[in-house]
Each structure stands twice: as structure tokens, then as C-alpha cells.
Amino acid sequence: MTDAKALQQERTKLFEDVYDGKIPKRVPINVGLTLEFAIQYAGKDLAEMQWNTAALEEVFEKLCQDFFTDTNPAGISLRNPLHYKLLGARNFVMSSSGFMQHPEVHGLEADEYDAFIASPYDCIMEKILPRIYTELNTNPVQRSIVFAKAFKAYWDELISGGMMTQKLTDKYGYSPIGGIEVLTEAPFDFVADQLRGFKNITGDIRRYPDKVAAACEAVTPIMIKAGIPPHPPSPYGNTFIPLHMAPFIRDKDFEKFYWPTFKKLVDELAAMGYPSMLFVEHDWMRYIDYLYELPENTRMWFEYGDPKLVKEKLGKKHIIMGFYPITLLKTGTKEQCIDKAKELIDILAPGGKYIFNFDKGIITTDSVNIENLQAVLEYVAKNADY
């Protein structure tokens, strides 16, 4: 057996134990470094490299060599500019600096809620997509051609990137489990993000509360379908659900509009054998008791909040990640950065059900001190044994 294969088996066992409710040999590390960070770290041009993804293997190789993680730190972005360009996207556009940005747009008008509720899929295809993607706003024949080109471009890039990262996963002995497999959204977030926009949805919940609630119910089956990975059920999978709007609405609105369909989504996926990985964005401490009610072993990646309270309330039922502030990697000394890792390990690791990660993805190289980042990862790898 090669050293890489043995290392891969050892790392995989760490995640299997956490997901199985066992205490692993040590705390596993699941730190993914964004495509933007990877390109900058390799000294390449951000905009140019995103149009030449065949050249990314050299970029990813450098990440694998210089940063310790148990899962592959590199990955192709789902926001590849090629298919967005073919679609004439208004919702994701590349800035002059090369970053993909999400402008405030909306594809559903307020007077179209009834049509959406009656048939959300038809409404998305016939009304919303042609508004968000300008190249689809044409006759049916041309629309089909554009759709086919964009679909092929998306999957060509995704498959090519997947083969590239799989090669590095095997070469460096990373765990094949622990990362993100597919992405879906909480129904309310989907209605807010792509259909009505942040500004409109905050007004809609006051002006058309029943229609908003019905729209969330109507789109839930689509969100469930989007969250099913292309493989048989497994306790080691991860359906990624980034949670956006909940911290920005009132408690009574969360209870009415957000929670019922979000819980249904996570419950249905779990019932089919597909665990969810939630990116608990911003501060969810006022909703912590709701989170407890989700299916056992739901993975929860926290951005902000009180790690002691989360461990106390959720740590025996769910799997906890996050909390480490990447801002400290920029502003702190090496000793302060390591001390923070030790503090979080001491709080979150006892009893298992903990995976080390930062509070969010690292997007730019100048947002952290690279030496601090490397020191923290090395510390956790060597000092988080049970």
C-alpha cells in the first residue's frame, strides 16, 4: 500500500467516525480554500485563469503542497464565468478585478406570485430565467440552443475540474468524504435570492405574507430535488445549504416564512439518507433551539455566535464546524492565532462531533497572513488528538 493510500484511509476514518457518532483519533480538518485565493496564491491573474481552467492544476498543486488539510483544499468554483457569459447573466457577473459578483436583481414581479405558486417550474422557465439571463429572452428555438451551449459548458468545466481535483485527492491522500457534494437553498432564501431580491422580499412579507408563505411551499419540492446527490444514500455525504436571510428578519417572520419549509427540506433529505451541511451565516444564536430540532448529525458550519452555547445546546446531537475568525489570521500574532485554535478545540472537541474549519471561506490572499494560516493548520493537525 502506498503512503498516500494509507494516509487517505486514515483521514477518511476520521470523518467516518465523526459522522458515525464515534470519537475519532483526532479532530479532522476540513478547510477549503477558494478558487480566488488559490489563483492569487499561485501568483496568477484572477480573471484570466477563470477563463483557462485547464491550467488550474498547477495552481491547485501549490495549495496541496503548502497547506495541511484532511480534505482537498482546492476545488472548481460553481460560478464559472463561461456559462454565465453564454447565458447573458445579470445575477452573476465578473468584476474588473476578476471576482464573480451577485448584483441585486429580481426575476419575479410582485403581481406574478399567483402564477409562481400555481406552477413554480413553468414560471421559472418561462418568465424568470429569460429576465435574469438575457440570452434566453428570445424565440424558443434560439433559447434552446443557448441553453444547450451553456449547459454543456457548465458540465465540461465541472467534470474537467472534478477529474483534476480527484487526481490531487489521490496523490496527496485526502479524504474523499467531508466536502460538499451538491448545493440547494432554503426555500425562503431561494425566493429572496433569485426571484424577488433582498429589498423586495423584506417588503413582501408585510404586503403579501400569505403569497410569500405559499411561494416557499411551492418551491420546496424543487429545492429537495436539487439537494439529492447523484449517488445512493450515504451517512457520509453532504448536501450544502447556505443560510442567508434568517438573521435579517424578525423572529415571528422566521417562524412563519423561513423555518417550516427549511425544516421540511432538511427533514426530507435526511429521510432519504442524505445529510445536510448548513452554512449558518451571520448570527443564529436566537434560533439555536430551532436548529436542535433538525435531524441528528446535521452538519452545522457556524460563522458567528457563542461556541460554548452551541456546544452545550447542539453538540451532543449535531456536528459542529467553524467559529474560527479569519480576521484574526490577518490581525493577530502567530501565538494569538494558535491560542484561538486551542481555545476552540478545548470548547468544541470534547465528546467528538467536531470538525475544524474557519468561520468562512478565505477569498483573498491579503485577507490573511499566510504564515498564520499555515501555523494554525499545522497546530491543529499535531495537537488535536483525543
Describe the structure.
Strands 3-4-5-6-7 form a 5-stranded parallel sheet, covered by helices on one side. The protein is of the alpha/beta class and 386 residues long. The protein has helices at residues 3-19, 35-41, 46-50, 56-66, 81-87, 113-118, 120-132, 140-172, 187-207, 209-226, 251-271, 288-292, 307-314, 326-331, 334-348, 370-383; strands at 93-94, 100-101, 182-183, 239-243, 276-280, 299-302, 319-322. It is globular. The longest helix is centred in the middle third of the chain and has 33 residues, at 140-172. The two termini are 26 Å apart. The chain is built from 16 helices and 7 strands. It has one domain (3-77, 156-383): Alpha-Beta Barrel (TIM Barrel), CATH 3.20.20.210.
